Amino acid sequence: MADLLKTGSDWLEEQRKKHCSTTVTYRRGEDSVEVNATIGRGEFEVESDYGVIERTESRDFLILAADLVLGGVAAMPQRGDRIREADDGKTYVYEVMAPGSEPVWRYSDPYRKTLRVHTKHVETDPT
Predict the structure, then answer these.
(1) Do 81 and 26 meet the contact criterion of CB atoms below 8 Å apart?
(2) What is the pLDDT of residue 127?
(3) Please, what is the Cα angle at 12 between 7 and 14, to 5 degrees?
(4) 3-class SS at 5?
(5) How many domains does the chain contain in total?
(6) pLDDT, tens only, 86-112
C-alpha cells in the first residue's frame, strides 16, 4: 500500500518548486548548476566563549536534493559553496555557512527530498 503522507509530501515539494521558487546558480569551485530554490531564513543562537548569546539570521535556500548535481555527480552542500541570486538588476552572492558548529544544511522534509541550505550574504555584483 502506498504511503499517503509521502505521496502528499512529494506532490507539495513539486508544487513548491514549480510555483514558489526562483532560479539561482549553485557553485562549487569551477562546477555550477542552475536550480530552482525557494527563499527562506533561519535563526541561530550561539553562546560565545564569554557567555554572550549571539543571534544570527541566515538566508536559506530550499533546493530539491535531486537537483543538486555538480560535475555530473549528485552533491550535498558544503561550507564555502556559493549561491548566486539575480534580482532587480543585481546579483547577490551568498556563501554556504552557519554560525559556530551548526551544520550548513539540513533536510527540510521527513523524506529527505529537500535541502535547507544556510548562507550568508558576502557580496553584491551589478548585473
Answers:
(1) yes
(2) 64
(3) 95
(4) helix
(5) 1
(6) 998 999 999 999 887 889 999 999 999
Q: List, in sequence order, every residue forming a beta bridge with 103; answer none if it has no partner.
A: none
Q: pTM of this prediction?
A: 0.88
Give the pLDDT of residue 53.
84
What CA dihedral angle connects 104, 109, 113 and 117, to 10 degrees?
Answer: -20
**Strand ranges, E, within 10-113:** 22-28, 31-47, 53-64, 69-70, 73-74, 82-87, 90-96, 105-107
The residues pairing with 25 across neighbouring beta strands, listed in sequence order, are: 34, 84
Q: Are 93 and 124 in contact (CB under 8 A)?
A: yes
Q: What is the DSSP letter of 66?
A: G
Residues 115 and 105 sit within 8 Å (Cβ to Cβ): yes
Partnered with residue 37 across adjacent β-strands are 22, 63
* Domain with 96 in it: 4-126
Cell of 121: 550574504
**pLDDT digits over 25-71, tens only?**
999 999 999 999 999 988 888 777 788 888 888 899 999 999 999 99
To the nearest whole number, what is the mean pLDDT of the chain? 92
